[in-house]
Amino acid sequence: MPARSLSFAILPAIEAVAASQWDALVGNEQPFLRHAFLQALEGSGSVSSVTGWEPCHLSVWQADRLVGALPMYRKHHSYGEYVFDWGWAEALERAGGHYYPKALSAIPFTPVPGPRSLVAGDVNADAVREQLASAWQAQCEEYGLSSWHLLFAEEQEVAAWQRQFPGLMAREGVQFQWRDRGFNDFDGFLASLTSKRRKMIKRERRLVAEQGFTMRRLEGRAITQDAMTHFYRCYTITYHERGRPPYLNQDFFERLRHTMPEALVLVQALLDGQPVAAALCFRSETALYGRYWGSEVVADCLHFEACYYQGIEYCLANGLTLFDPGTQGEHKLVRGFAPQRVRSLHYIAHPGLAAGVAQFCQQEAAHIKAYRQAAAQALPFK
Questions:
Q1: Residue 4: which pLDDT band, with cuts at 50, 70 and 90?
Q2: What is the pTM of this model?
Q3: What share of the chain in percent tops pLDDT 70?
Q4: Residues 334, 173 contacting (CB under 8 angstroms)
Q5: How far is CA 44 from CA 12, 41, 252, 253, in A?
Q6: How far apart (Å, rounded) are the C-alpha atoms in residues 293 and 241?
Q7: Are 323 and 299 in contact (CB under 8 A)?
């Protein structure tokens, strides 16, 4: 398809485009890009100009057909992103400039690696990216945005953007993910580990049971309003313990329960038959994503059981090959979660800051690579 047949438009809200058009580009492997997920964020007010996330999604059209899209927000802070650029903002402010607002292409509060640019299979991807780039550049100029950031994009997409726009700077990070190596079941997974780590996991799971906990997994329509209300109470506890309000409100989770229940897996920890802790995961056809956790009780190893071991068991029981339990945490390493490189792309308009950030990213990448290699050597497999 020739580039001249394409045009772009800015969507002030995800509801400005039909869910059928948007989801036709998403496919089945990334629940966080689905129209329903983004609409739950916006419709609940968790993402809005009030919270510092102004939707301005990019769309590429051939006549009245959506053929390309990229979620985007005008940001007035750097909360909820998990790629930390506070130092960049401070540097520009010290130089007399303004870092905020900025443009951000990411899934709010969701540092899950995956596709970001959505492209129809029968169009030229380079031509769509050209239109998307024109759109975010136009936004930067019109609103005086300091920069554009593409967070947690998949490797092929990062390479394609850099090939087409060499001025984009890549920043590296590390996350820990579990993959099925043909374990068959949880005992097979344990058998693949060194004796020390196998005994550790068995001891941790036994300790949870000895404290009187039983575990339950609920899926889809089996997640009732009461179950979701209890989960949300637990979720807020996690934030209040840190002295912060939660990013997401209860309406957000209730919307998901109604609009995309098939993507939800809720792990509950029960004590005397009543739920006292919960972890909410999302699933695709091949992957499980651990996202939110909270507990009303303090108990040894309960977090490991609810957030890691239950997820591994679920994957093995349901033929899922990837389990992404969330960001951070070297404690995942000794439990079989391998280090994975994650990358983001950055455009900064200010030449001086851009030069400094480029040097920083290059130096940081060398340290990240060394760390990733050392972490891989510490995996517990035989």
A1: low
A2: 0.96
A3: 99
A4: no
A5: 16, 6, 5, 9
A6: 13
A7: no
